[in-house]
Specification:
alpha/beta; seven-stranded mixed beta sheet; five-stranded antiparallel beta sheet; 7 helices; about 30% helix
Length: about 280
């Protein structure tokens, strides 16, 4: 059984501040340890149910947040920047299930710790087939392209709720309760890890019954930008059509092509942001 783990950082229990997510410094080192604990918990749970191959894609920041030597299960570690499939780099046909660990809420949803959607300086709101979506739903396009189910998602309650429309069959482990964008009631890391490991085990045991993401094709991904300039620059990407003053729409029947266009939009709009 091959398990693909896409992990972010903001949705990890105990993390509530950007200093825990961005190097250098003591808070970041603390955040790295907390993240490693939850990723390893997911790996341990999957392996206890028979997983034989683990691929972990570091999806946060510069995407090199863990010490590869400390990953459990002799996991393959996909790290570094400028990935063609960004948070889903390394997922291929033949994988049995996707885990999304440490995910967070969308920038335009209810208050969720450190919420954003890819780049908060550029993207203000995203919908998929008319439904507000966070990174879990956007990334699910890649899972759909390969016919792989998303079996597990961890983070706060808002993250779990946003995943529901498209990932109805996924186990959702709530490890903290956000009350503002910078505050949450966090489970103790040992408790969060135990719950993640148990959920991962259950998912791995029933992987044959899981279905790919419930995204109707052809689909439409509507991306709302912070400024009109950003929408103009985004429209230069193949597959992205400017449909409003601050909006581009990426549509079609090929979910992988849609996701590739979205990734290109996130990269190219950094120019209009000033980067």
């Amino acid at each position: 059984m091959k398990v693909f783990v896409s992990f972010d950082m903001e949705g990890v229990a105990g993390i509530v501040d950007w200093s825990q997510c961005l190097p250098p410094g003591r808070p970041y080192e603390e955040g790295r340890r907390l993240l490693l604990g939850e990723v390893n918990a997911a790996i341990d749970g999957a392996m206890s149910a028979g997983a034989t191959e683990i691929v972990c894609n570091d999806s946060h920041g510069t995407m090199n947040n863990l010490d590869p030597e400390l990953l459990h299960g002799q996991a393959t570690y996909v790290s570094g920047r400028h990935k063609p499939l960004y948070m889903m780099q390394g997922l291929e046909a033949g994988a049995d299930v996707v885990f999304m660990v440490g995910y967070h809420g969308s920038i335009s949803g209810e208050s969720s710790v450190l919420s954003h959607t890819y780049n908060p300086s550029v993207i203000s709101h995203v919908t998929l087939n008319g439904i507000r979506v966070g990174e879990s739903g956007i990334n699910a396009l890649v899972a759909l392209a390969w016919g792989v189910p998303v079996g597990l998602i961890t983070g706060d309650r808002q993250t779990a709720g946003e995943a529901h429309p498209f990932l109805t069959g996924a186990e959702r482990v709530v490890v903290k309760e956000s009350f503002t964008r910078f505050g949450a009631v966090n489970q103790h890391p040992e408790v969060a890890r135990a719950r993640i490991a148990e959920a991962a085990r259950r998912v791995a045991e029933q992987v044959a019954t899981l279905q790919p993401p419930a995204i109707t094709l052809p689909a439409a991904l509507e991306v709302h930008m912070q400024t009109a300039d950003m929408a103009e620059v985004a429209s230069w990407v193949r597959g992205a059509e400017r449909t409003g003053v601050r909006t581009v729409t990426i549509g079609g029947g090929d979910p992988l092509a849609m996701f590739r266009s979205f990734v290109a939009v996130t990269y190219i709009t950094r120019q209009s942001e000033g980067r």
